[in-house]
């Protein structure tokens, strides 16, 4: 999934405007004369950019992707969109699957609602393992950009469980009953249970927590869970449908002050990989700072760099 570095460098070089050569020279010199760190140039945008990275929208499978989401495959060290809302399109044409990585784990993007700022995601793990998939990690994400929605409920899995013989009957109703069920590799042998998290089940959850080797809690859609949990087959496959249905996350608009100004002026915020707001990508390949009312002159950064290096 990760881009091949030589190809990436080649792509970057191909897109590097020729007048930026003095900047590269300056960086080269700076490294060799040991300029103190405090004088290091902060990460910056070029003064012009390839406007196609900010095009109105991309299609990946059935999902239309547009700002503040962005595609990964351009190879620049800045985004036209919010750092964490980076989408990788797996496959092509109608079968393409948009994938987002949160906390180092991959999720399929099922829908994006731009009006309510909500995305519907499903853990990529739940599409394997037939009707009885296993989740192997909690859902974690950086709250700078994303938030749980109120339509989510918690579903908790207990794997690698060894309960006392006298207890098995009491807990039987919560046991996953699929002939071909495979618990996650890290869980070790033992029974598996799935429990809807609510107050009444405190005792149950505590006992399971004491006697199982692995606990995973994931968000699912509350209404979908309620409907499915009433069905006979909930623990023999119904829960898998609930997982595949996905969960919602909301994204926050313009967390950085400069980014807010940028968007107000119809620009799009550029961020570094480290979530720093870098400037405003404006119409016609021009860069503004902080907004499109303040366009950075096309030669400014190279001029500054050559002055410093002489
Ligand atoms: C991107 O790379 C260029 C040149 O390699 C550098 O001048 C610039 O500061 C970098 N920008 C970011 C945001 O890291
Ligand atoms: C999931 O989070 C809970 C606490 O919130 C923790 O006890 C559990 O170990 C985590 N599971 C995994 C697989 O990291
Ligand atoms: C789900 O669990 C988390 C902690 O693991 C908690 O903060 C959150 O409020 C729970 N959500 C619901 C809907 O109960
Ligand atoms: C969990 O293990 C403890 C001993 O480690 C045992 O006393 C308890 O009955 C077990 N709980 C269940 C539900 O089997
Ligand atoms: C979001 O909710 C899920 C479960 O509903 C929970 O496991 C997770 O910890 C929550 N994440 C945050 C960042 O609150």
From TrEMBL:
Residues 1-40 form the signal peptide. It is a single-pass membrane protein. Residues 54-123 form the Wall-associated receptor kinase galacturonan-binding domain. Pfam families: GUB_WAK_bind, WAK_assoc. Keywords: Glycoprotein, Signal. Residues 182-284 form the Wall-associated receptor kinase C-terminal domain. It is found in: Membrane. It comes from the Eukaryota. One of its GO terms (cellular component) is membrane. This is Uncharacterized protein. It comes from Miscanthus lutarioriparius. The lineage of its organism: Eukaryota, Viridiplantae, Streptophyta, Embryophyta, Tracheophyta.
